[in-house]
Amino acid sequence: MAARIGLEGRGLDLGYNARPVVHAADIRLQTGRVAALVGPNGSGKSTLLRGLARLHRLDAGLLSLGDGSDAHALRPRAFAREVTMLAQNRPMPSGLAVRDVVGFGRHPYRARLGGGDPEGPAAVDRAMRLTGVADIADRAVDELSGGQLQRVWLACCLAQDTGVLLLDEPTTFLDLRYQVELLDLVRDLADRGDIAVGLVLHDLDHAAAVATSCT
Description:
alpha/beta; globular; 24% strand
């Protein structure tokens, strides 16, 4: 299957309080491929990823989807059906089952009062199967290990059913076994050919193992 553009940024400038962090960055995320952003702390990797997710304002540049349309012209709900991001810092849910947390990923498809998502249950089940958490769907997330919880959050992103998946240092705080398992899962997801992945990593060995290209 030929790779297609999922998300592309051209000439991207980003910064904080008039202090530039990223200048004239070009990046193209394509289906079936994993693009890794690597570099030292403070080099702007996470800032660039957040810019691609529309979570950080662009000072300059263009962000476009695979059909060439302006990503910033979409309303937030419509954009959330195209691009999802697993951030470094996430609230720790309490008193919720795994299935409920994964279901959060269906928010772009639900009406304001919570209804109108007939495909939701199937999407949640598929996401849990892909990430290997289907057998703990009814367990409370408070009881999970770090590796299991990271898989649950990834399942939440997959349930969002987008063509672009952004991951900001997804192996942080995981032991070596879970790091390898998570990166293997990301590579498998890309190999299916219908999703474009961009991720931030510190470890060059991890980047070499999972990525199609590194920047």
